Every structure is written in C-alpha cells, then in structure tokens.
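Bumping my old thread because nobody answered last time. Still need a sequence for this structure:
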C-alpha cells in the first residue's frame, strides 16, 4: 500500500498540465509495477473521462481501488493530490511577488508547450492503440474499424454542431453518443 501512495505522490509531484499531462507517466509507472495492462489503463482512462471530477484524481482513485480496495483508492488519491495542494498553497501565498521575476515567467512559458505536447502525445498514443491496435513495434496492427466509425461519428457530431450552433457541444453528449455507439457496435446488449 505504501508503494501505491509513493508512486502516486511521485506522479502528482512531477506531472504538469493536469490529468492529461499525467497519463504517460501514470501508464509507465502502473505497467512497470505490473498493476494493470495497457488495455486496462485505456479502459480506466475512458471511465475517468466519463465520470465527474478531474481525470488525475479519477485515475488515481480507480487504479488505487483496483490494487487495494477502499484504502488503496484513498492512498493513491491522496498521493496524487497532495503535491498540487501544497504547491498551490505555497504559490498562492507568494504569487504576486513571484510574477515580477523573469525566471518565473520563463519557467511558465517553457512548461506550456511541454504540457501541450504531452496532451497531443497521449491522444496520438490512445488513437494508435484503440483504432490501429498498435501495442508494440514487433506486433502486427489490428485495425478496429468499429472504433474508427465511433470516432468519426463523434468528430462529425462535434464539428456539425459547432458549425450550426456556433458553439461547442457538451462533452457529456459526446460521451453518451460514444457509449451508445459502443453498445450498438460491440453488442453489449
């Protein structure tokens, strides 16, 4: 249990950009500990995006619960939020004084592109794994046309709504469309 807490404490301490920026490190750590497979992580990401709350906290809670029940969920969640909580308290107390320093502005300007890159990389990796079935260089691709159709339906819905209504559609509606499409295409019912 202590390993679960320390792992998520490390993830929370060095992950910038919120939950999406955390996904590559979380994936690496969870797989290296043998807690979950890549497929299970993808499922946890999908569930974490679909449930209320920040994805980082949801992921920590779900992984912790899978490894140690209620106590595991608590320790993993505490581990992932504790660094941010402490940093926010410290920064909030000195933020006005810090923003006048060029080094602080430079640090924040340097972190932004990395966060964007991590989010894009996570999206591309998930696309390759889910749509193309890419798991390793030595493995053949196993293209999932059903997942591609669901992706296309959701993307088309988003862009059509944006064009017609001149605004963004609720992510909840897109999640529901994805869920119902999954039920239809993968025959859960």
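Sorry it took so long. Here it is:
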């Amino acid at each position: 249990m202590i390993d679960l807490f320390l792992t998520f404490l490390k993830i929370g301490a060095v992950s910038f950009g919120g939950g999406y920026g955390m996904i590559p490190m979380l994936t690496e750590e969870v797989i290296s500990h043998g807690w979950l497979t890549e497929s299970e992580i993808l499922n946890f990401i999908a569930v974490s995006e679909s449930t209320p709350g920040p994805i980082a906290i949801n992921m920590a809670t779900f992984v912790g619960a899978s490894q140690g029940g209620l106590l595991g969920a608590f320790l993993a969640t505490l581990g992932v939020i504790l660094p941010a909580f402490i940093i926010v308290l410290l920064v909030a107390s000195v933020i006005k004084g810090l923003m006048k320093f060029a080094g602080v502005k430079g640090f924040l300007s340097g972190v932004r592109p990395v966060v964007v890159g991590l989010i894009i990389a996570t999206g591309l990796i998930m696309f390759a794994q889910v749509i193309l079935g890419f798991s390793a260089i030595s493995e053949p691709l196993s293209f999932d046309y059903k997942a591609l159709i669901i992706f296309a339906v959701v993307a088309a819905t988003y862009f059509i709504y944006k064009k017609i209504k001149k605004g963004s559609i609720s992510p909840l509606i897109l999640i529901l469309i994805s869920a119902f499409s999954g039920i239809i295409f993968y025959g859960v019912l």
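The radius of gyration is 19 Å. Let me know if any region looks off to you.
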